[in-house]
């Protein structure tokens, strides 16, 4: 693809890997990043000088206008991530995720943008994953009751008969049911970008990332992902705290695979409009992740994962993806080996 590709949030964990891959493939790249303190201690040292870097906040319309000037494609990664610490974070999530997206789209419309728009979405838009009841087939369980969680009943029951459910993989056409502030803002991003696509004819590709891990993950912040939180605990010689019973199923996908999915969406010969799961296709429990990181970090026996049976409102039990549509239409299949990825994460230097 000729012209400059804009990567918003390009200094971040995922965005920086996308920048690196686009540069390696010969693309001209511009990045804009607010360098939020929740994710950055300063300007990272890993930024490639071959890209054009704008340190600025997309909520500022002048920054958005400067960022989009002359670009032929946009990979929109900028967002405040994580479940959220408390409801006091709500204005920040809406501001950085939704208002900033609105300013970006306004600037793109004003510039006459006619290229491709790729949005970093998330598996959190699904809420609970897909389940099947032996009697009622595929069902959508509601939020888990606090009384059940307190009693250690972590599996969601069938909403019709109360029987145990079997978790299934979630396809892209599943009903959307965000269950946290972060999830609500990610779904709002999808809706805003879809409205922009309908009005302008610009093709939108929404990539619904599952649990992304790898080098450059933020550390020692409540907004970090579970792999990073566990890694920080092992680095400090502590046992990581595993909530519930550790049996929560997730799909852990390497950040370089996520970057490849973005490259496919931005540079494919024809636009690939629609939503796609970006996942490894291999479900693993949270406790499996903790043990894999323990092995990779060489943790002593007294630093084995501590299963606390604590729970958090807004967490879901199982969410794993179907990778079929992304393979068929996007041509994306995860390539990174999980054990090697854990070893790489364990050895990665602290992020600046």
Estimated radius of gyration: 20 Å
- Strand-residue fraction? 15-25%
For the terminal residues, how far apart are their CA atoms? 32 Å
Largest sheet: 7 strands, parallel
What ranges have pLDDT less than 50 throughout 5 or more consecutive residues?
none
The total strand number stands at 15
Number of helices: 10
Strand line-up in the sheet with most strands: 3-2-1-4-5-9-13
| Helix content range | 25-40%
Question: What string, H for helix and E for strand, traces the elements in order?
Answer: EHEEHEHEEEHEHEEHEEHEEHEHH
In terms of quaternary structure, the protein is: single chain
Report the structural category: alpha/beta
Bulk shape: globular
Rounded mean pLDDT is 93
Descriptive key words:
three-stranded antiparallel sheet, seven-stranded parallel sheet
Can you put this structure into words, describing what you see?
Strands 3-2-1-4-5-9-13 form a seven-stranded parallel β-sheet, sandwiched between helices. The chain has a three-stranded antiparallel β-sheet with strand order 7-6-8, with no helix packed on it. A three-stranded mixed β-sheet has the order 10-12-14. The chain is 34% helix and 18% strand. With 352 residues, it is of the alpha/beta class. Helix 6 (226-235) runs parallel beside helix 8. It has ten helices and 15 strands.
Could you outline the blueprint of secondary structure elements for this entry?
Elements: E1 4-8, H1 13-24, E2 28-33, E3 52-55, H2 61-68, E4 71-76, H3 90-111, E5 116-122, E6 130-133, E7 137-139, H4 146-150, E8 166-168, H5 181-200, E9 204-209, E10 211-213, H6 226-235, E11 241-242, E12 249-254, H7 255-267, E13 274-278, E14 283-285, H8 286-297, E15 306-307, H9 324-330, H10 338-347
Parallel strand pairs: 1-2, 1-4, 2-3, 4-5, 5-9, 9-13, 10-12, 11-15
Antiparallel strand pairs: 6-7, 6-8, 12-14
């Amino acid at each position: 693809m000729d012209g400059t590709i804009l990567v918003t949030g390009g200094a971040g964990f995922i965005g920086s890997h996308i920048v690196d891959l686009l540069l390696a493939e010969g693309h001209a790249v511009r990045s804009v990043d607010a360098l939020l303190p929740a994710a950055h201690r300063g300007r990272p040292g890993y930024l490639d000088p071959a890209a054009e870097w704008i340190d600025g906040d997309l909520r500022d319309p002048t920054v958005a206008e400067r960022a989009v000037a002359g670009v032929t494609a946009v990979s929109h990664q900028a967002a405040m991530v994580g479940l959220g610490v408390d409801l006091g974070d709500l204005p920040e999530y809406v501001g950085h995720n939704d208002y900033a997206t609105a300013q970006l789209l306004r600037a793109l419309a004003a510039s006459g943008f006619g290229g491709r728009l790729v949005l970093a979405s998330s598996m959190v838009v699904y809420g609970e994953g897909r389940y099947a009841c032996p009697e009622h087939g595929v069902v959508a369980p509601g939020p888990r009751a606090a009384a059940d969680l307190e009693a250690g009943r972590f599996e969601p029951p069938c909403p019709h008969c109360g029987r145990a459910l079997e978790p299934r993989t979630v396809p892209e056409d599943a009903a959307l049911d965000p269950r946290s502030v972060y999830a609500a803002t990610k779904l709002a991003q999808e809706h805003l970008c879809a409205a922009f696509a309908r009005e302008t004819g610009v093709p939108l590709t929404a990539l619904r990332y599952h649990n992304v891990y790898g080098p450059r993950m933020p550390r020692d912040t409540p907004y970090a992902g579970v792999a990073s939180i566990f890694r920080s605990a092992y680095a400090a010689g502590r046992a990581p705290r595993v909530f519930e019973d550790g049996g929560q199923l997730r799909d852990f996908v390497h950040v370089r695979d996520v970057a490849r999915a973005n490259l496919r969406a931005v540079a494919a010969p024809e636009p690939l409009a629609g939503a796609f799961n970006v996942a490894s296709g291999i479900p693993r429990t949270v406790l499996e992740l903790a043990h894999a990181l323990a092995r990779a970090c060489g943790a002593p026996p007294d630093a084995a994962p501590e299963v606390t049976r604590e729970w958090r409102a807004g967490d879901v039990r199982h969410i794993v993806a179907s990778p079929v549509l992304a393979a068929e239409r996007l041509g994306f299949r995860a390539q990174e080996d999980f054990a090697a990825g854990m070893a790489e994460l364990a050895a990665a230097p602290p992020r600046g």
